[in-house]
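Hi everyone,

Forwarding the result from last night's run.
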Amino acid sequence: MDLKHFHYVFIAMSILCTLGFGFWAMSADVRVVGSWGRVGGAASALLGILLIAYGVWFVRKSRQIIT
């Protein structure tokens, strides 16, 4: 696996982890995660959305530069 494909896999796994944690923290009982857990879940969900945008940007850019 070359570096470009490893980067694709790494971005995809990062998106799944951040969105998964964000979904869990936002849907869990407040007694389990606390109020800061909700803030962390929202921040994680936002980071997951930003990673999606970065992934789209990287795919477009890598098609132009990396062959």
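Residues 3-65 form one domain.

Cheers,
N.
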